Amino acid sequence: MSVKAEWPAGVGRLVLPTVDSTNAEAQRLAPHVAGPVWILAGEQTAGRGRRARPWASPRGNFYATLLMQPKEGADVVALRSFAAALALREAFVAVTGLPDAFALKWPNDVLLNGGKVAGILLESGGAGQGVGYLAIGIGVNLIGAPEVSAVEAGAVPPVSLLAETGVRVAPEAFRDVLAPAFARWEAVLVTQGFAPLRAEWLAHAARLGEVIRARTGTLERQGVFETIDVTGALMLRQPQGTIAIPAADVFF
Ligand SMILES: O=C(O)CCCC[C@@H]1SC[C@@H]2NC(=O)N[C@@H]21
Q1: Domain range 12-203, CATH architecture
Q2: What would the 3-class secondary structure string for the chain be?
């Protein structure tokens, strides 16, 4: 793997051999840093996924959080999950040279040959009005993936980059491709808004135009995945009409 890209100006780097969770570390660090910083860990002892699921974090895979201090309100801040997904896809394509192998699953997973290779967990907090800090946590199955039996029934199977493509990338090398890619999408979001990200995300969306199931709590709705709207919500066409779903787990 020899993909060179400039590290983004003004962005810090922190590497920890082991940590409970890079998102938890970002939360602890937030009051003490003024600018963005990538926190990378060799392993996590309490990695967390969306909806409070554990995220198995043995050495060799990628566990990182970008801690940042966004200026906008919560709605715009949340759109960074799309910037992160697009950056992840670009990083994967850069290290593998396989543009057609990767797809984006709403709201923020990256699929490789139809299996989940990466997940994103956004967390925010801070005192006062607005969003004090944003932690964009990213987990990538670089060399290994959990057993299918370890994930929710019906979820897409986890896969690793190594097993699917034969490409072996070290976590720091992957970070050095991902961080510049994220910085580019961050700049587009800040200067041009969500529209270019939305268009690019839709160009790589998994199961667009197909029947999917969206589960929110105990409510499961089936319909055609029409698009995402200008807020990033999933637009699901049902016999009664199209509904906007701001948050859900999607099953194929
Ligand atoms: O459920 C998901 O798909 C999101 C998984 C996010 C995992 C990453 S690993 C780095 C960061 N630290 C955590 O504890 N979680 C995120």
Answers
A1: 2-Layer Sandwich (3.30)
A2: CCCCCCCCCCCEEEEEEEECCHHHHHHHHHHHCCCCEEEEEEEECCCECHHHCECCCCECEEEEEEEECCCCCHHHHHCHHHHHHHHHHHHHHHHHCCHHHEEEECCCEEEECCEEEEEEEEEEECCCCCCCEEEEEEEECCCCCCCHHHCCCCCCCECCHHHHHCCCCCHHHHHHHHHHHHHHHHHHHHHHCCHHHHHHHHHCECCCCCEEEEEECCEEEEEEEEEECCCCCEEEEECCEEEEECCCEEEC
